[in-house]
Amino acid sequence: MSTAPAARSVGSLAFRPLDPLSDAELVHGWVTHPKASYWLMQDHRLEDVERDYMAIAAHPHHDAFIGLHDGEPAFLMERYDPAHVELVGLYDPQPGDVGMHFLVAPTDTPIHGFTRAVITAVMAELFRDPATARVVVEPDVRNTAVHALNEAVGFVAVDKITKPEKEALLSVCTREAFEAATGGAAR
Q: Residue 29: is it exposed, middle or buried by C-beta count within 10 angstroms (0-12/13-18/19+)?
C-alpha cells in the first residue's frame, strides 16, 4: 500500500490493489450510482463488475486500485498503458505515457476539496514511478466537472477523439505541468 500527500483538512489518502472478488460489491455500488454515469456501468450487475475487474487484474497493461481515505475505501483508480488499452490507434503514444481513470465514491457527507485532493493524490501516485513522463486521460467531452479538475492539476486538452462508447477529450499532463499546478506534489 502506498500513501500520497493530501490536504490536512481532507485526511490521509492511500492506495491498495483492488481485489476483484472481495471488492466487487463495494465497487458495484460506486459504478452504478447515478453520479458515476460517465463510467458507463449503470446497468452492470454484481457479476459484471466482478468479471470486468477480473479481466483488468489479469491484463498485463491495466491495473485497478482502491483509494483509501483515513483507511476506509473512498475512491477508485485505474492505471493503464495507452499503447495497449483504451487508446490503441486513437493517438500516438509516447514513451512514458500512462493512462488513468478515477472515480470518487458517492457519499452523504461530502468533504470540501476531497475530489481535488483525490485527483492530486492519484497523479502523485502515478508520477512516483520515475518512468512515468505523462499521464493521459480520455473523459467524455460532456464531463465538464472532470475537465476542470484535470486542468487544475496540469492537464492540457490536445484533441477530441471518437471512442466506440463516447466522444472523448484526450488530455495530457506532464510531470512538470503537474508539479507547477500543485506546487510540487509529485516530489
A: middle
Residue indicated by cell numbers 472532470: 146
What pTM was computed for the model? 0.92
| Residue 5 predicted with pLDDT over 60 | no
- Residues near 143 by beta carbon (within 8 Å), at least 6 away in sequence: 38
The C-alpha atoms of residue 120 and residue 185 are separated, in whole angstroms, by 7
C-alpha 129/C-alpha 51 separation (Å) is 28
3-state secondary structure 53-80: HHHHHHCCCEEEEEEEECCEEEEEEEEE
Predicted local distance difference test score (pLDDT) of residue 3: 52
Contact 102, 80 (CB under 8 A): no
